[in-house]
Amino acid sequence: MNLTQEKFYKEITPNGYGIAIKQGDMLFSEQSEFQKVEIFETNSTLGRVLTLDDLMMTTEGDEFHYHEMIAHVPMMHHKNPKTVLVIGGGDGGTVREVLKHDTVEKVVLCEIDGMVIDACKKYLPTISCKLDDPKCEILVEDAIEYIKNKKNLFDIVLIDSTDPMGPGEGLFTEEFYTNVKHSLKEGGIVCAQSESPFANKEEIRKMYALLKKVFPICSTFTSNIPTYPGGYWAWAFCSNSVEPLSYWDERRGNEITKTCKIYNKEYHNARFALPNYLKELL
Hints:
By secondary structure, the protein is an alpha/beta fold.
């Protein structure tokens, strides 16, 4: 087939390069109060794709690269994670991975846009499959307001946010990070997606400067995500008292590894080794 006759989803970074995916049928396309929400089929190995305001959020084909990392790396640093807060993450992939930990008694999903949750439940069932789990409480509200005055509630907080623009912009401020810090129990851990070290260097520099003001321990880990800008992603690991690579539960880790496509102990440990150019940014 002549490629010029095919329809492509394209996302070009401000650096002048990006990705193109052969696009199939549009399954869902609506404008919510906050953003344009779309889910479409692809003529590729990626399966269905979720975009928000035309920016890539997740695909059926490579979502595990993101969700396994944001959930299991911080969760495995905690000796007994019982209460977890997921901020954003309306597709449900992070909740799905969190609930693989049998210590978890409750996970709160705080997502500002209910349309994202509803669309993903209908069209991305392999990702959203645990959103109806009795351990999961879904709050459709602004996490910036929700987290205010929350004290000593969570063992783990996962900030599964969009980029620092639109409805996600307020999740990248010193005030927000301070409120998240106060919501942690003793020994608590925060993990936040922190953009592409290759494509979003200025955003990373600003974000980590704020995080380091708030948290006495602030590190980063990275992994590859094929469909994200640059194919390479970073997450912030923050705590008042827990150092990176200080703990790994053999029993829980071995059981979880059996269910994962990318995560294992060796991969976990290697994620905290950083390239020189990222060390310079931080």
